[in-house]
Amino acid sequence: MTGLALATLRTAWTSVVGAFVAIALGVGMISAIALVLAGTLSAPQREPQRFAAAPVVVRGPAELTVSGDTASNGGADEEDDEGGAQSVRRDEPAPLSPELIARVAAVSPVVEDRTFYAQLAGGPADQVGHPWATAAFAPYQLAAGRPPGTDDEVAVPEGTGTVGQRVRVLTAEGPRDYTVAGVTRPVSFESAVFFTDAEARRLSPAVDALVATGPVNPIESAVGPDAEVLTGVERWAAEPAAAEDRQRLLNTRTLLGVSGGIAAFVAIFVVASTFAFVVAQRRGEFALLRTVGATPAQVRRMVLAEAGAVGLAGSLVGCLLGALAGPVLADRLISDGIAPDWFSASPAPAPLAFSIVVGLGVALVAAWTASRRAGRVAPVEALRQAAVDDRPMTRGRWIWGLALLGCAVGGMLFVARVQPLIATVPVIYLWILILTVTAVALLAPAIVPPFTRLVTLPLGWLPGATGLLARENTLAAVRRTAGTAAPVLLTVGLAVSLLGALGTIDEARTSERDRQLATDLVLLPDGTPGISPVVADRIAAATGVDAATPVPLTVYGFDSGSLRDYDAIAVDPAAMARTVRLDVVDGTFGELSDSTVVLTDDWEIPVGDSVDLWLPDGRRATLRVVGLVATGIGTPDAYLAANHAARGLADEVLVPTDAGGDPAQLRSRIAAIADEFGARVADRSAYVGAGGGGTPQGSTAGIAVMLVVTALYSGIAIVNTMVMAAAGRVREFAVLRLTGATPRQVLRVVAAESLLVVGVGLVLAAAATALNLAGLLTALSTLVGATPARVPWLLAGALLAASTLLVLIGALITVRNTLRGPAVQLVAARE
Asked: 337: left (phi > 0), else alpha (psi -120 to 50), else beta?
């Protein structure tokens, strides 16, 4: 049957050209993603920049390692059952201890390096500070002046100040004026302000790294397992930009992993629908084969052989498309700020070969079900079968559709009742949305007849036969209608479900933020990465009001026996209680101190027990739990006392407004202080709006890229399916012509059918979206209470309009071409 399959492809290639196009585009999409993903895995080791002239760099361990005798969540007395050490990557390497610095200094000359927040007023938000002694290791060069010689002198980048000028520098210690002693030439990797070594030590006591100039072996012996010794290209790991690059590459991999899964799903979805449609159109051909003696197994082998040939050819073309699209996708990820600006992707054998295997596998898997249906066609029954779908919903379709729908609903209920926070993680909850869309697509043939009868009921009362013919043709070809509506469902349903979910989550976050805020006066960063907590002291001295300066930090602890990181904030409990309405479910927030902690209730640790936490500097702290707050979307995992902040910056400053006095005067005095600290005064609405968009910009951009690719693929699939459907109805249109219909009337019938197809796709998409948002709202109600759904109506309307346009264009152009020539010749034409 392989030879017959190849012969069929040569003589009747138009019957499978739609499947070829679907596979080529699907593999092109997958291979482009695979190429970029491979680029992130094989990214070259970057050459050191800031430490380019440093012989040896010693930095703290990049991972926190905890021995097996350390407690899990229950407290310091509970042993870890596994007994082995566990490690977790830190947000930032731990600072070097004085003991380690002394050991290294005993065997080699060393220079202490510090990197800390230091921003010139009006300067870039990512500006940093360093001691001047480390400038030689970049090396930095002076364009004017001299190095800073006293603690009130600095060296600034060229273009930000002149020698002798007084400049204001914002640090974690607050604003301070310095005199410019020197001006450095610009470098590509950072914008830095240099201080004397003593001033840098005062501003940032912790030592981030050591530059050693002695032999490596004695340094490694002195360091031992307490730190990392970096030489050669490994020195790049000690630079601040390395952590950002690593995080960006990780974000890119995560996004591409999800995008690859979506691309594979879309490809299987569309290709399977296309093959099922092709087999349905070729029932007469298969019937003839059965009549001349072909067995069901032979028919199945022929269909699979055709699918293999088409899949291989489409995969090769798709790889060519992917090789061209991969660099374009990489550039888009860079421009959206997701991937590092030095990242690139180029064609590579491994991802292209993988894409070919995936494309061929998708084609064979998609054709397998269709081949079984083709093999079950009885010769006599098929030859006398009318063009009516007597059984559009097969048993397998019912089973799979209901099973996937049950999995989707079950997943939503599990998330809502057991793990509601999963609903706020798009890359995880997305798969539940996909399950719903797939289930609705499988059950589509059962929805088409009642929907068509309902919306076309008034057409029977209108004069003329156009509406009646469109109605009956749609009802007679339920499988064809469902197949052509599938890309519309995929485009509208997936996009609206996902973006609706993101918008609804942000709406819930905004509602929670608004409900918790107990003051109307907030300071927000204005062109700075954060606000120095020292501003609270300045406000208290000027107004007598104690402001809350919650400083975010990362702590580490055990979750079900596994070491992981937690989001925490360090804050003064009294000021926090006056500005934020926390939902304390047990204990009290007021007892928060250096030796206690307040946790969210999902820790499942009772008040009074102790918990082991590791602070950002690596110190282990055994803290007594004095309060539990309800888990929310924006709620940190732990609250610590302000002393644990370790000179970090606050994301906002909350000022109580119930202290009495004139509110306008209070606001005016605080605004003047805020301006000194690079902050601005915001009211409730501005504060809530600033924190409401909880989806990171990079994630939003990545999701937008993914949806654009999916929409383009689905749009092409819409045109492809409509062209195939119209091309397979040549005889039907010819019969209409012979019965007296004009070409314009035939086109009107096809247009009406096309609009019905779009309507079916819209109803299916609406059903899938409604179910998805209902499940999401149920989960969010557990976290933050009632939340309004935010449906992207503008996007839904745009996608619907685009789908309608594509369906009409694809159908009408093809039908117009098939109507050329005498109707008698069209009837005699071979399908």
From this structure: left
The helix, strand and coil proportions of the chain, stated in percent and rounded to the nearest 5, come to: 55, 15, 30
Using CA atoms, how far residue 624 sits from 487, 594, 609, 689, in Å, is 56, 10, 6, 35
The mean-pLDDT minimum among 250-254, 654-658, 701-705 falls in: 701-705
| Nearest to 239, CA basis, from 523, 47, 436, 378 | 47
Beta carbons of 815 and 745 less than 8 angstroms apart: no
Cα separations in angstroms, 622 against 74, 125, 596, 609: 11, 35, 8, 10
- Angstrom distance (rounded) from CA 551 to CA 206: 18
Output phi, psi for 255, to 5 deg: -60, -45
Closest among 98, 209, 89, 205 to 554, alpha carbons compared: 89
Between CA 230 and CA 216 the distance in angstroms is 9
Phi, psi torsion values for 582, nearest 5 degrees: -90, 140
**Of 322, 312, 318, 287, whose CA–CA distance to 364 is shortest?**
312
The mean pLDDT of 64-90, rounded to a whole number, is: 62
Residue 159 has pLDDT above 70, yes or no: yes
Helices (H) and strands (E) in the chain, counts: 24, 23
**The pLDDT of residue 191:** 93
Residue 91 has pLDDT above 80, yes or no: no
Q: Is the dihedral of CA 182, 185, 191, 194 positive or negative?
A: negative
Query: How far are the Cα atoms of 106, 210, 358 from residue 206, in angstroms, in the given order?
Result: 20, 11, 51
Look at the alpha carbons of 406, 407, 408, 409 in this order and tell me if their dihedral is positive or negative. Answer: positive
Both tokens of 567, joined, read 């989001």
Q: H-helix or E-strand containing 609?
A: none
Q: Is 537 exposed, middle or buried (0-12, 13-18, 19+ CB in 10 A)?
A: middle
Find out whether 721 and 273 touch, Cβ atoms under 8 Å. Answer: yes
> At a CB cut-off of 8 Å and minimum separation 6, what does 677 contact?
170, 174, 175, 523, 531, 532, 534, 535, 538
User: Is residue 526 within 8 Å of 685, Cβ to Cβ?
Assistant: no
Q: Show Cβ contacts of residue 680 under 8 Å, excluding neighbours closer than 6 positions.
A: 523, 524, 525, 526, 671, 674
Please tell me the pTM assigned to this model: 0.79
State the CB neighbour count (10 A cutoff) for residue 149: 11
Which residues lie across from 622 on neighbouring strands?
612
- The reported pLDDT for the residue numbered 694 is 46
- 234's CB contacts (< 8 A; 6+ apart) are 45
| Alpha carbon separation from 298 to 3, 289, 371 (Å, rounded) | 12, 9, 10
Alpha-carbon span 731 to 711, nearest angstrom: 33
Residue in this structure with the two tokens 């050459």, named with its chain if needed: 47
Backbone angles phi, psi at 318, to 5 degrees: -65, -40
Q: Is the pLDDT of residue 76 over 60?
A: no
d(CA 597, CA 587): 11
Average per-residue pLDDT in the chain? 82
Judge residue 307's burial from the number of C-beta atoms within 10 Å of its C-beta, 0-12 exposed, 13-18 middle, 19 or more buried: buried
Q: Does the structure show a pLDDT above 50 at 627?
A: yes
